């Protein structure tokens, strides 16, 4: 299985389908064009493809000066466990570091050990409405 990584925005239908596989559409309740707009407005985006299929993506939302918030990082369940998420995350963090930005993100408690292995530490609690 060969995975290609690109810094181009995926088309809105592919993105919507990937978010559906991740069960994110139920929470977000956004049409495909708005998901695409969110990526267009991002500081940096990276996507992973296998044989032309979008299998993962992630992005940075940033002020470009101080903070980089990593969000929308996900890999199709069918392709999880192959290092794709790690590679996407590393590309995002490397881009933020090249721009001297402080990296922040939220994750669920059960995957804290994964990010700790990548050199990150828990620093705050988040809120959501």
UniProtKB/TrEMBL annotation:
Superkingdom classification of source: Bacteria
GO cellular component, as recorded: cytoplasm; ribosome
Keyword Cytoplasm annotated: no
Sequence ranges assigned to domain N-acetyltransferase in this UniProt record: 1-129
Keywords carried by this UniProt record: Acyltransferase, Ribonucleoprotein, Ribosomal protein, Transferase
InterPro entries listed in its UniProt record: Acyl_CoA_acyltransferase, GNAT_dom, NSI-like
GO MF annotation list: N-acetyltransferase activity
A family per Pfam: Acetyltransf_1
Gene3D superfamilies in alphabetical order: 3.40.630.30
Protein name, per record: Ribosomal protein S18 acetylase RimI-like enzyme
């Amino acid at each position: 299985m060969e995975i290609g990584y690109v810094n181009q925005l995926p088309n809105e239908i592919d993105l919507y389908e990937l978010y559906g596989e991740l069960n994110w559409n139920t929470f977000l309740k956004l049409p495909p064009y708005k998901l695409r707009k969110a990526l267009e407005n991002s500081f940096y985006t990276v996507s992973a493809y296998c044989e032309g299929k979008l299998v993962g993506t992630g992005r940075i939302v940033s002020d470009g000066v101080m903070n980089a918030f990593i969000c929308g990082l996900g890999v199709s369940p069918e392709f999880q466990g192959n290092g794709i998420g790690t590679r996407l995350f590393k590309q995002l963090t490397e881009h933020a570091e090249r721009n001297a930005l402080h990296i922040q993100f939220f994750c669920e408690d059960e995957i804290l050990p994964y990010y700790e292995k990548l050199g990150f530490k828990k620093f705050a609690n988040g809120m959501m409405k």
